[in-house]
Structures are given as C-alpha cells and as structure tokens.
Queue: 3 jobs
Job 1
Amino acid sequence: MKDKEAYIDKILEDVFSLPAPKIKESRKEHISEFISSAVNGDTINAYIVIDVQIDNKPGIYIYILTNNKLIQIGIDINGKIESLTFILSQIFKIERKLTDENRMEIEISFADNSVGLRYPGDDKNINEFFQKIEQVWVNRGQGGAK
C-alpha cells in the first residue's frame, strides 16, 4: 500500500474498530487531518494502532513509520491528540528486552529524546512493526538490534 490517503484510511479504520477505547466518531476528520499533517510529504511504510493508558485514561497510540521518521500519535478517550516525531537518521540506540515472563520492552533512543513501549511479548504485530524500525537502523549502518 503506497498511497498516503489509502494508508490514512486504513489507520482510521483500525482506530475506530478497536473494541476499547471507543474514540468518538465525530473526531474522525480531525484525526485524519492530524495524521496527514504529521506525515506531511513522507511515504508511509508501516503503522500500528495500540490501545494504551494515557495519563491514566484509556487511549490509543498510533505509530507511523515513514521513509524519514517515526511518528507517535496519542489520542485519549476524550479525543485529545498529541504527537511526537523522531527523525530516523538520528536513532543512536535500540534496546529490546524481556521484562518478565511474557512482557517485552523496547526503547528507541534519539539524540534528544526517546520513545518506548511495554507490550505482550507474543504480540506479533507490535514485534513486526518495531523490527522494521530496527531494520532501518541496521540498513543505515548505524548498528544492530541490541
């Protein structure tokens, strides 16, 4: 899927089909515009939508991997949207570790910030998404998965 609009439509479909939390359908156009603005002129290569807790409230994270950046968009149950953008060429460390019996933790460190996530170790979609980021890092000659 190479078309940006098709990717955004699929992301929105995944956001609004999550069983919980239920983000208000009335926020759909605003979320679409927010994603489009965050992606800007980049090519979307992969994404994942995850239900999470944001400031102790149900919410979702959308992680978008483009040809130039990793975008993390957080949307809480009330529809508040915040995002962080990380430039892929500025990755200097990726750590993945088993935190307990079946929980994984990944942390991607950049020059001035980092992004991390704890998740079930058997979640194939999350593992595959973050493996794509590790592959970008390796392909740029900046290291390997730690």
Job 2
Amino acid sequence: MLKFRLIRSDPTKLEVEITSSQLISMLPIEIQEHPVMGEIERVWLSDKKVYSVKNLDPSSVEIHLEGKHIKISDEKMLSILQTLEKFEIALYYEGKVDKYIVEKIKL
C-alpha cells in the first residue's frame, strides 16, 4: 500500500498522511453535481499532465446514475498514483479552486 502526505494551506493549514485507498476514496478524479455547490470537478495535476474525467481513456470512466457523478475507476487512479511522486489535486466549484499538494512517502 502506498502512503502519501496531503498538504493544504488555504483556507486552513492541513497536513496528514494517508494511504492510496484513502486518497482515492476522499479525493477521486471526478465530476459531480453537488446539491449546494452545483457542478464540481476534481483533477490531479502533475508537472507533465492533467488527469481529468475529460481527458482520460473513456474505458476507465465510471458513470453513476444517482444524480450526475462521473469518476475515474479506482484501478485506474491507483495505477496513476504508482507513477507520481509529487502532484496537486485541484477542486473546482462555484468559480473557485481548492488545491492540495500530494507527496509520495518513501517507505
């Protein structure tokens, strides 16, 4: 199991260690309709690539029928995590963006 350091500085400072399973569960690559915030999109950004529902292979996309919820499969996200050492996660909503820095922890 891979481990990562998740860092956020705004609006409040946060730094936690999480596993790859926790990261995929809590911060997946997705687009969904939120009941309060409207459409939200979460992407992973490396220095070389943007990982988004909009640009990854359609065969790795899962569509859930409860409201609008489109996400990349857990297996695909795990394979992406195995290749990344440091990247950002960006959550876009209501014209705003929240960013997290993610660093792989060497065991």
Job 3
Amino acid sequence: MSQWNDFLWPLIVLSDEAKFTLPVALASLSGEHVQDTELMMAGSVVTVIPVLILFLALQRHYIRGVMMGASRASVIRFPAVALAIGAIASLARTGASAGAAPPLRPPVVIDAFDSTAAWAAFPADGVQMKLSSDAGAQGKALRIDFDFEKGGGYAVVHRAVNLTLPDRYAFALTMRGERLRNNLEIKLIDSTGANVWWCNRRDFDYPRAWTTVLTRHRQITFAWGPTGGGDIRRVAAIEFAVTAGQGGKGTVWLDQLELRDLPPPVEGAPKARASSAQPGHGAALAVDADSLTSWRSASTDKRPWIELDFGGERELSGLVIDWAKGRHPRRYSVEALSEEGGWRTLRTVEGDGGRDWIFLPETESARPCA
C-alpha cells in the first residue's frame, strides 16, 4: 500500500512520463495557473479502484486482524431479549495452550499507599501539583491534586522499586478520579534511568468509583532509551503520569498497587449454561461449532441469557455470533465478570439478524471463577 501511494521518490527519479506512477501522474495534471479538474477526478477513481477491489477481496482477513487486539475474559454472558443463538461462530483469541502450569505466586504488593513518603512529584512547568494522604478503598490512598494552568503539560509521581518481572504479569492499580479525560501513563524504568517502557492510555476515562485497572505485559512497550527495544525484566523505578488531553484541574487517588503473575492462556471450548432451553436446543449447542444446531430459550423466559465459562482467564479480541434465522433480538448486551465481582456491560448491540461482529479491544474481566 505504501508503494502504491508513494509520491516523493518516484517524482525525484522518474523523468519519463510514460513511467509515472499514478500519484505523480495525477499531480502533473495540476499546473501553476490551470488544472484539468475533470481529468483529475477520473484519474483519482482509477487510482482508488484497485485498492477497493483488494479490500473487498480480503476484508475477512482485515476484520480478523482488527480483532486481534486481545481482551481477557473468564466468563461472559449475553442477557438479552433473545430467542435463539445459532452458534458462537468464533472466539477470536491469542495465546496457545501451555499445558500444566506451576502454581502462581501470591500478588506482590508494591505499595498499599499507607504513606506518601516513597513518592515524589514531578510537574511540568506551568502545572500545579500536590501530593497528600487521603482515605482509600482500603486504608489510605495517595491523593494527587493538579491543575494544568496553561492547558498542557504533565503531572508525574515517581517511586523507586526493585522488581523482577515474570514472563507473564500484570500491574493492578486500584484508583479513582475526578477530572476531565486526560492521558494516563504507567512507566517502568531500568537501573540506568535512561531506558523507559510504558503503557499510554490516551483520553482515559477516570472512574469516579474505586476501580482496579490492570496493565498487562503485552500492553507495555519500549518507549525510549539507548537499549532501543526489547522487554524489561528488572524494574528500578515506576511512574504514573497524567498528561494533558482536555487539560483543566482535577484529583486522582491511587490505592493498592500490585504485581500479579498471570496464568498461561486457557484453551478449549467454553462451557455454556443458560437461563432456560427448549427440548433439543440446550445451551451447549451454541458453542458446538455446528451451524445446524442452536440454543433456544423457553418461550416463557422473559429475560433469557446464555453464559460462557472458559474455565479460567482467556485473552479474547472479540466475538462472532450467528443468530438463528428469524430469532434474533432487537437489542442485547454482552457482559463479563468484573475485577470487583458482579457483572459489567462490555457492549450493547442493536441486533439485525444474521452475523454480529462484536469488537472487544482491551476489555478486562474477572479472574477465573468456579
């Protein structure tokens, strides 16, 4: 695609008009004082047609690639005004079976925030910032008050640590905030202080209620430094940064920062159960990969639902649901177990029958449940 749209290099090296690429040829139709608009429009259509044909031919693979963002779920549920699911056509996922795995070590509490002494504030010029201790979800919390007086900048809290990261891990931070949407960054720094890895959540919607936010190893990428890339194994310092998106002033509370080992990904078909089922249309038939069978709720079931239990955490990128002909709901929701317990809505879908593609990027749900 980049070669097809290339303009500058062909413009420099090509002198024969018969060998001009399409972008260069289109540009040549526009002169300093006159241009052939109709011919340029015709040429633009000719330029776009091959790309459009390529997209139409490969759109299935394109959508599959978009859905590889990976989410995590242990149990998901579809409460709906639903009548029948022909099949859960696919559960796009990442990871491979790891076989029998050693037991996970308990979470490592990096900071319970009973004291603010270990944390230092580093605001940008023109940013007002104050650290203090306040009531947390459990015990105390680190309170960060800040004001982007000039509209831009950052407010950073820094703490020295000594952590060795396992192969699969996640940082769990219990937090809440009262502020406009701004970026939330977590940074891991090695012993040199020059190499930084990070996860940057742009336009982060800070939860007003205490919420545990997980940052997994796959979300942390190399940011800058002389190392030039790779993974970080030993962490000498950790930072949280609020950087100006919409600006303004606000407050963020941090509580209970943990390092958790993650289990190997779980494979195999999920177990299905439902609120009800008609004879010969049990819940298991929704995930048997057979388009000729289906789950159907009982005709007397006013609030039907079907639940998929993966038997442990699994990374998903989305769901593809095939509805039985003429039995799709007008509206339904997809829910997952939350970190705090209970169900939370991932998507609300306006159904129109046939196949529904449900994109679930970076969605977090509970850990394995019984």
